[in-house]
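From the pipeline queue, job 12 of 40. The input is one protein chain; the requested action is below.

Action: predict structure.
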Amino acid sequence: MDTNLNLKSYLIIGMMLFALFFGAGNLIFPAQLGQYAGTEVGIAILGFLVTGVGLPLLGILALGFSKSNDLRDLSSRVHPLYGLIFTSLLYLTIGPFFALPRTGAVAYEIGIAPFVAESSGTAALLIFSIIFFAIALVLSLNPLEIVNKIGKFLSPAILVTLAVLLMAAVFMPMGAIGIPQDNYRDSPFLTGFLEGYNTMDALASLVFGIIVIASIHKLGVKSAKGVLEATLKSGVIAAALLAIAYTGIAYLGAASTGTLGYLDTGGPVLSGAAAHYFGTFGTLLLAVIITLACLTTAVGLIVANAGFFNKLMPMINYKIYVVIFSVFSLIVANAGLANIIAFSIPVLLFLYPLAIVLIMLAFLSPLFRHRRFVYASAIIVTFFIAIIDGMKALTTSINAENPGWLQAITDFYAAVLPLYNEGLGWLMPALATIVITGFIARFSSGKGTVSA
């Protein structure tokens, strides 16, 4: 029998979900979206909220609905080897490849760069990142309760600071909102949708969602239905807070271009706005809070990655993993925030479709009797489209032309796949595959049912 949760319990879980998804790095993406979306910021932020808020919530719900022990358990429904590779790639993506070095780069962009001459930026980033990741390394070797306590303090501190900044932006706008730039002119919703990938929260929800589910279990909710209900009700609270925060930051970015100009990343938008409204004190306060928040996020990501790979390959000591991931992230962070974001896009365009299809399959699984070949068929079809999208984005990131074979495939996809030029060419083929193979699975007998 499940414990009946009260409003306070839902608020606690909702704030946990909010803290899980709203890292300090997430501040920068809606700010940049606002700058480039201009007068289309309203439509663009709706697309951003779908992938930046909706998908992460669905990811956690999918884990609970499927009764999976973790992401590897869920993705192994495709095939055990796929489960291992896909889970490892997700950990590395939200770990040392991109999200982890991004914590150091964001902390530098918002906390240090405003006080450093542009000519000294490279040296200052190196010095700061060495200190930042050295502290993160030490804390990760012996995770202390103080990290959790600082984290609990920082969430409300960020919210209060952000609320003051956004209120200033609403009642005293920096300037008029400019015209849409780049893809925001023609496809603001879909461009915002793809920008939401940068938060990496849908990927993180598949990795860390089990923590939220375990917390719900501790409150006395054990049944799958009860867990789903508690997650959904709490998720509405988290989603509302996230939507308000993202929308406000996007508006701030949209109104900032007349004063700050168009910037490469969202970090200088926030620090510039803080300086505009509150001077040096505001910039310093934002710098301290964001730097500490990025540090606690970095510790969490290092611990999670080191723990996962130590469990996967126990012959290597946990502390060695901590050192490897910290040093690797230090090196990547010195590529700069703009480069980290640019090179993460090809990987996200590859991984996100696979994650979205896996989430869909988790919810639809009872309809096709949990048959493995439905999982495998849908993922294979998605893979062959998403991998091309990732390769195409990579050539763009390095300012290179597509090889002839790659261009031939992209031209073919563009000609036959709906929404391909909008970055969603995988969607209709994946849905069609699920329907066709699901119909076969529903009305045929045979082996290959996965546990559920």
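Job complete. The chain has 18 helices and no strands.
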